Amino acid sequence: MLQYVTLTIDGAKVRAPKGTSVLDAAVHDGICIPHLCHTPDLSDIGACRLCIVEHVRNGTSKITASCTLLVQEGMMIRANSDRARKLRRNVAELLLTEAPNSRAIQDIALRCGVKEARYPFRNNDCVLCGRCVRTCTELYRGNAIGFVGRGKNRHVEYPFGTRPDTCVLCRACITVCPMSIPPCDGPMKRGEERFCGKCESQLQIPQYESGDCVRCDLGRGFSCARHR
Amino acid sequence: MPRLKAITELFDLRAQLQAARAAEKTVITVCGGTGCQASKSLAVIDEIRAELKRQQLDASVKLRITGCQGFCENGPIMVIDPRNLFYCRIVPEDVKEIISQSVAGTEVIERLLYTDPATGKKIRTEAEIPFYRAQDRVLLSQNRQIDPCAIEDYVAIGGYTALAKVLTEFAPEAVIAEIGASGLRGRGGGGFPTGKKWASCRAAAGDEKYVVCNADEGDPGAYMDRSVLEGNPHAVLEGMAIGAWAIGAEQGYVYVRKEYPLAVAHSRQAITQAREIGLLGANILGSGFNFDVQVARGGGAFICGESTALMASVEGKVGEPRAKDVHTVEDGLWHRPTTLNNVETWANCPSIINNGAHWFASKGTEGSKGTKIFALTGQVRNTGLVEVAMGTPLRRIIFDIGGGAINGRAIKAVQTGGPSGGCLPASLFDLSVDFETLEKAGSMVGSGGMVVMDEKTCMVDVAKYFLAFLLDESCGKCVPCRIGIDRMLEIITDISEGRGRPEQIPLLEELVETVQETSLCALGKTAPNPVISTLRYFRDEYLAHIREKRCPAGVCRELIAYVIDGEKCTGCGVCLRACPYEAIKGAKKEPHIIDALACRKCGICSEGCKFEAITISSGGVPCYSM
């Protein structure tokens, strides 16, 4: 039998089965916490750090990723406090300037309240969210791709650089990749990158505020609970 | 040696070994640690063996090769007992003279004695050397007495008494209470109270538990863990056995990086010897307690010093940290409760049990007890390992023990705690070195690295160096650490190359906060510390780089120029010939000129100039006299 615990997220009482993550519990109850590397049915690695929340305990609060934080009885979570939002905005800005060539990342940056890109753009093809790797290993048991290298050299690759027989070209890795959706105006060339700031999300709400659900169409691809 | 089946047998063995040791008349102790090996101590040792044989002294003179004794600056070092005669910087050619005059005879070879740089006097005995006298050597003094490859030595100096005591007199809870009362805090960097860690691991649910020794030391300029594990592996094993008894574990791991081959070899050998004699394995000393240790060799990634990454590495997975919302004392190695402690923490446990918690707590400050080993490196006279009580002022470590700056330049700052620590300026040298004080000042005790910097060091360049190190060593898993450190490095590189803009400082400060708060593991969370502390104490240097495009220390290449002083230059032509880029022009006997366009600022010219005519200037201001 499932055991349930009750926790507070942004002042709302949330009931969730033991063993679920705070992020899942929040999204299930319609509290939107932006996230990128988390996808349903896959394990969470806490890589993108967009889903950071304030975990209030013993009078102090600690910033931690909600996807790897499991629910506990009486937990106090602040998902959209000023502090969490500011840090989330800065992380989103880092992601945006690293890989602006994705509608998903442009949209996430906007949803997290990025106003301008203060770092020089780089036009990387991968943000190492690991969705492809986990889909391949966990859902399809293919083990055909994995992370190689450390730090700046970390990248996704076939084992020893050659495609193994276990890869049957199912393209599951591509469908979950946030970089596979180009920005609305088409792919950006090197040197022409920008923060476009006009994803559907902005068009739907005149007074935009981060943390609110914007029912954007991209939510479908990113497991937004409101988009059903 | 026979297997020990009871505690009384251990005491009998010790009595035998001590008697044999007391019978040793003349003992030559030579350091065989990695530091002295780099100064060719192995050749010296071979020569001593051959020479003893040649002079037929090999039966009456005992040669003991020890681990690191800490005075690495003057290696290879040798002590001749019972006279306590101390020789340093020995070369194989000296050996013949030493054996015939100082071992067979009673003379002293003046030229091999240590010269005190402060007074210029020669010092004869080890006990008189100020470097040693100002220290409180609890752990390091054991290194001096034992051959790390011989368990007999460790048993003879009282080794494994603490384990025997624990097995007979202490219930596991009592051990935890004793360690807790001693106030021992983790020596690896975090400073978490060891007793508390053990208590929560004991309380954690699960039948199978593990103890792990973290010997994945990777901070630039820090090597105390290596020296302890190399020089005294049995103390670490004994500490681990005590910990295992306390928390209820039967298996331990020593995680050593492969860059420490001697530490790997010595710990493996120590484990084999302890197993043979029955101090590891099943039914230790007839008490019914089973405990065994394995060496897990790491590939040398800095990140594997982080607890969860280390455990992933021991499990055979990629060494990457994971979220630590549930601590490793509950969910560690193979998802079982695991106690992970640093080499030095484990090595401190036997002496706490032997001498009592009060003895340990009598040293140090209110919140930080006991002694700590620091690796003193950088621009000081006496580089080496320094063991002092917690709470010793920085000034005492740097000037009294370290002997002050090399070359007589002024000391500007000290970097404590490795890449995750911070730089403290000379004005704060009266701070006491303990966990709380250093943390308040924006640095940390960390694993115990201390890099002393003089006025020739540019603090922007220091921040750049540490960021580059951390970027290289970050696992790259989470965004703030991978991209955030990269962006910080980008901004600092801009500043050091003269492209800095004033608005970049607030941006850097915001980025620092983001990386600190949102990173997945402690590497990312502490990565901005070098930037924070240099911005806090040396902001004027950043501003000089940004506003005046000037590097006050004359380090950042893009902002400096080499200039020849026409009055001092005699036109000797040394610099002209030395310059690899042919940037120096001038006729013989006439002052030379450096062609600024061709100059690549390598500094080779200034090194060769006898007349000190070549200086560095930055932004039209001379930086310092060479």
Compact summary:
The complex is a heterodimer of chains A (228) and B (626). Chain A is an alpha+beta fold.
Describe the protein in words.
- The complex is a heterodimer of chains A (228) and B (626).
- Chain A has helices spanning 22-28, 82-98, 103-111, 131-139, 172-175, 200-204; strands at 4-9, 12-17, 52-57, 60-65, 76-78, 146-148, 155-157.
- Chain A is of the alpha+beta class.
- Chain A has two domains: 4-123 and 180-220, Ubiquitin-like (UB roll) (Roll); 131-179, Alpha-Beta Plaits (2-Layer Sandwich), CATH 3.30.70.20.
- Chain A has a five-stranded mixed beta sheet, sandwiched between helices. Chain A has a two-stranded antiparallel ribbon with strand order 6-7.
- In chain A, a hairpin with a 6-residue loop joins strand 6 (146-148) and strand 7 (155-157).
- In chain A, helix 2 (82-98) packs antiparallel against helix 3.
- Residues 201-228 of chain A have low confidence and may be disordered.
- Chain B has 626 residues and is α/β, with parallel strands linked by helices.
- Chain B folds into five domains: 26-81 and 85-124, Glutaredoxin, CATH 3.40.30; 151-361, NADH-ubiquinone oxidoreductase 51kDa subunit (Rossmann fold, 3-Layer(aba) Sandwich); 371-454, Roll (Ubiquitin-like (UB roll)), CATH 3.10.20.600; 459-547, de novo design (two linked rop proteins) (Up-down Bundle); 557-622, 2-Layer Sandwich (Alpha-Beta Plaits), CATH 3.30.70.
- In chain B, the strands form six sheets. Chain B has a five-stranded mixed beta sheet. Chain B has a four-stranded mixed beta sheet with strand order 2-1-3-4.
- In chain B, helix 19 runs antiparallel to helix 20.
